[in-house]
Design a protein that fits this description.
The structure is a single chain. Helices cover 33% and strands 21% of the residues. With 485 residues, it is α/β, with parallel strands linked by helices. The chain has a 6-stranded mixed sheet with strand order 9-8-7-10-16-17, sandwiched between helices. The protein is elongated and about 125 Å long.
């Protein structure tokens, strides 16, 4: 009886084991195959995510929309193949099929929403199974998709062309870096404007989408820059803002890019004429005044001027052109002789507390002393301090979406959410102020209390030497394109 029981148990064990194998092998095989498919899926998803980003970035390549879309689709496909090997974890094929005009297929570029383009990438990987073949499942297709939206970008470039750039041999490298920067944006879709400033300021290329294909395009204008003169930063910032205000595209990403290699040295003001001065002026008071750019020397605290605040866009001999306010400043001692009378201040009562655009020359960044209601011309440190104060106050107002005033084409209008990015070249003989540029940009590293956490943070990039200029411009371009997605 015992032997018979043992034999019966052995039969049951064989049957139970067989049943368990039928269940366990597929379950174990399924677990292994699913794990392998999960790994394939993760790798493919990473490749597709990167492909969508690469495609969105490639939308800047080409001078028209069809070319840009074709380049984006091809770049997306290339990125998938480069980052997902066809033999990865037993994969036997991978497919991504871009189909012109990119409204269907594996790369779709959607332009139906104003001021943005969306790149959607889908890839397919055929992966054989290892254990599930026992159940006649020989392979499966892994699919991954990703979308990236790129907002149109409007960039007002405000570029310093002062004489110190020529002194340090930085003018040519600056121009090449700026041209390279422009090449990273999409002609016909993005908008680029160019404002250059030294003593005078000029909108060389009013902001437009044909910045690469215009009869005189932005790269050509940059290449023609002559570096000489002083540093009228506040005026340059206002002219850059005016470009974005006039375009008036609040749904786009609006950026003001500010480049300089030194501290601000000039403000555009209406200088009040002293009663004792022989100056004449068409601007009846009281007091009578002459408009111009009152400057300070970079290397010493000293007032001089008044200079012409704008130019025709072509610098012929010098950017230091003394204004006579439409030839009505005859008799002013400051304008009688450039060589000996440039620092004359006796014609004027002092400097007003605001420039012609509304920038506060006494905003608390640096101290100012007064003579009556005007900034004291007898205190030479005021010359340097007022120019820095004006530049920072201009930036603060621009970031706050201030309504423009003064002699700007779009006075009375405004635009909110303008980001300011700045690049500072640090090799000038009389160097820039890093904290000032950090504060102008609302960079989180700005000193207290000048970083405003309630506004979008900008970015300041320091280029210590001439060799670093191109990398600084490239860094700003990457940041702009990153947040445009």
């Amino acid at each position: 009886m015992k032997n018979r029981r043992r034999q019966a148990r052995r039969g049951i064990a064989i049957i139970a084991t067989s049943i368990m194998l039928v269940i366990l092998v597929p379950v174990t095989g399924l677990a292994i195959d699913v794990t392998l498919l999960y790994i394939d899926k993760a790798r493919l998803q990473g490749a597709v995510d990167g492909a969508a980003l690469a495609g969105a970035e490639a939308l800047s390549r080409g001078n028209d929309d069809p070319t840009q879309k074709a380049n984006a689709a091809q770049e997306a496909a290339n990125y998938v193949f480069l980052n997902y090997p066809t033999t990865f974890f037993f994969t036997n094929s991978i497919t991504i099929t871009p189909v012109s005009p990119w409204t269907s297929g594996d790369v779709i570029i959607n332009e139906s929403v104003a001021n943005q383009r969306t790149v959607t990438v889908t890839a397919h990987a055929n992966v054989p199974t290892l254990f599930m073949r026992w159940l006649n499942f020989t392979s499966t297709t892994v699919v991954a998709a990703s979308s990236v939206t790129r907002r149109d970008v409007n960039v007002a470039m405000v570029v310093d062309r002062s004489g110190s750039l020529a002194t340090t041999g930085s003018c040519a490298p600056l121009k090449q870096a700026a041209i390279n920067f422009v090449g990273k944006f999409a002609n016909g879709t993005d908008y680029i404007g160019l404002v250059t400033f030294a003593s005078s300021t000029h909108a060389d290329f009013p902001i437009a989408s044909d910045f690469q294909t215009a009869s005189t395009n932005v790269p050509t204008l940059i290449n023609n820059i002559v570096c000489e003169g002083s540093t009228s930063s506040a005026m340059g910032l206002w002219y850059g803002y005016d470009q974005l205000v006039g375009l008036n595209e609040p749904a786009a990403l609006n950026v003001l890019l500010f480049f300089t290699d030194g501290k601000p040295t000039g403000v555009n003001v209406n200088m009040p004429i002293a009663n004792s001065s022989p100056c004449t002026s068409p601007h009846a008071g009281p007091p009578k005044y002459i408009n111009g750019l009152y400057n300070t020397y970079t290397n010493v605290d000293e007032f001089f001027g008044i200079l012409q605040p704008t130019n025709s866009g072509t610098i012929t001999n010098s950017d230091f052109n003394v204004t006579t306010d439409g030839n009505s400043g005859a008799g002013c001692a400051f304008s009688q002789s450039w060589s000996s009378n440039v620092t004359v201040t006796s014609d004027f009562l002092g400097v007003p507390t605001h420039d012609v655009f509304g920038s506060n020359l006494n905003n608390g960044w640096l101290p100012i002393t007064f003579n009556g209601s005007y900034i004291d011309l007898g205190n030479a440190t005021n010359a340097d301090n007022m120019a820095q104060n004006a530049a920072l106050d201009a930036a603060v107002q621009i970031r706050a979406g201030a309504t423009e005033s003064g002699p700007l084409p779009n006075a009375g209008k405004s635009l909110s959410n303008v980001l300011i990015y700045s690049i500072g070249l640090g090799n000038a003989p009389y160097p820039l102020s890093v904290p000032l540029l950090q504060s102008i940009s609302n960079d989180p590293s700005a000193p207290s209390p000048w970083y405003n956490s309630s506004e979008p943070a900008g970015l300041f990039v320091l280029a210590p030497t001439t060799a670093d200029i191109n990398a600084a411009f490239a860094s700003i371009a990457s940041e702009i394109l990153r947040i445009a997605k």
